[in-house]
Amino acid sequence: MSYKAICMELNHLPISQLALREAIRMAGGQSALARVCGKDQGHVSHWLKSAKGVPAEHCPAIEDATGVRCEKLRPDVRWEVLRRGSIEPVNGTLVSGAQAQGVAHV
Q1: Are 43 and 93 in contact (CB under 8 A)?
Q2: SS3 label, residue 39
Q3: DSSP code of 104?
Q4: Which of 33, 35, 37, 74 is most buried (most C-beta within 10 Å)?
Q5: Residues 42-64, buried b or exposed e (16+ Cβ, 10 A)?
Q6: Long-range CB contacts (< 8 A, 24+ apart) of 52-60?
Q7: Where are the domains of the chain?
Q8: Best CATH choice for the domain 3-75 from the list 1.10.540.10, 3.90.180.10, 1.10.10.10, 1.10.260.40
Q9: What pTM does this model have?
Q10: Which tens digit of pLDDT belongs to each residue from 8-65?
């Protein structure tokens, strides 16, 4: 496939597929990315071909390993809501994201 044909193909891919390809590159290949997720290479190959892409539960591990943001891998998931509930250091103490933002727990 020519460079021009590859560029044209990439221009028609959704952002999630471009992000997955970047994560694969950053991890060192499909097999390496699969190991990050506790899966085999066939799963990553399937994610590349499927409309949904990466299952959301694997996005945080991929982000940790490659730096490719969950928001790019699965833009249909409301990551800001999930991140709000994460544990964050505040003055040396681990607290939930809601506590760090001054939100009281009921």
Answers
A1: no
A2: coil
A3: P
A4: 33
A5: ebbeebeeeeebbeeebbeebbe
A6: 53/14, 53/16, 53/17, 53/20, 54/16, 54/20
A7: 3-75, 78-106
A8: 1.10.260.40
A9: 0.69
A10: 555 667 889 999 999 999 999 999 999 999 999 999 999 999 988 999 999 999 999 9
